[in-house]
Design goal:
The chain has about 70 residues and is an all-beta fold. It is built from no helices and 5 strands. The termini are close together.
């Protein structure tokens, strides 16, 4: 699906997401072109890791490591 362009881990979140901390967010460079921001589910990723789309929840794409 794509590769991680950049990533960060969120430790302090707005009230709506406090129960999720810490969580990882990444900008993914899609194989089809363009970039999208999404959450990382499961194992943490690093720049250039390959990721696949796992799910979309409330309009937010969730990716996981591997392909």
């Amino acid at each position: 699906m794509g590769s991680v362009y950049t990533e960060t881990v969120v430790y302090t979140a707005p009230p709506a997401f406090e129960k999720d901390v810490p969580y990882q967010v990444a900008i993914v460079a899609l194989d089809s072109g363009g970039r999208v921001t999404g959450r990382i589910a499961g194992a943490r990723v690093a720049i250039d890791d390959r990721v696949t789309l796992l799910d979309t929840r409330d309009g937010v794409p969730f990716f996981r490591k591997g392909e």
